[in-house]
Amino acid sequence: MPEQLVALSLLLIASAVTSFASTAIVKYAAESIGMVDRPDERKLHPEATPRVGGLAIIFGFGFPLLLLAANSRAAELVTKNLSYLFAVLASGSLVVGLGVYDDLVGADAPKKFIVQTAAAIIVISFGFQFSFVSIAGQVIQLGFFGIVATIVWIVGVINAFNFIDGIDSLATVVAITIAIAFAIIGVIRHDIFSLVIMAALSGSLIGFWPWNRPPAKIFMGDTGSLFIGLVLATCAIAKPSKSPTALIIGGPMLALALPVIDTLIVMKQRFGGKHESLASRFTTMFNADRRHIHHILEARFGSTIKAIVSIWFVTLIFAGAAVMTVIDATRMIGYSIALVGVILLFILRYGRRKRA
Question: What range does the domain containing 242 cover?
Fold first, then answer.
């Protein structure tokens, strides 16, 4: 265990340093070629800001893992988890390509949805899907519905992180908190490979944060948010054993509650608006606007920092609840804490607005 702790610490540090240095390079390159996000009526940052910081996050995540794989013991760990690794790499390449395309050219909602669904299908093809649900001691096999539920889950989380990346460093802070919760759950479940993945992701995000904190010098863009969403969505349904995965709202899934719930609320609002056709309703669900909780809190508090801290605090509650639900002795306490998180989330979202 001490050797593993040292290796994980070195991986986290290496990922952070790699990400920090890579961000400086990506920032310079993006500014040189004009790949910047300019302020408009929806984007309120004060000046043009590079928007492809996700490339640095991905490099900080992947490069130290490649170095780790050069170690014989680490390589043995990788070979035992090839399905998990290939699922992330194959589907990740799709969403990274989508993110780069969207950051450079711009992709409409149908294109995003098609590519994200394809990425989810790739994950399912490697064996990661919900297989059953247990209710009152009765096990119900999901069959084809398990595939549908898995696609909805993965695409939903990918979009949740894309949507929450709306103010400086928010997605970064939320993702770090959730990744650490996943790592703790990995320790509890003796899931070393997931722990390694989360150490690399946490490190890369920590290295990116100094560049992304308010006022941000660079944004992660869709390249980063889509990739982070995919990794966390996949890890949430992965298990250290090859036993079927249950559709249970608990454990890692619960840690993702804030971005998922906020996204569901916003998409419902968009779908329920005035539209000419059903197709336009679905398209509008994926269009960006200022209905998310971070926009609401930023307007209410008049402060980006206060909005970030408020959302981070609720995320921390859900992360703590997620960890507690994977321990038999504290499972019900975890669900109770999660309920407190839901209540706080709705209070923040629907509380009294700041008077003009």
Answer: 2-249
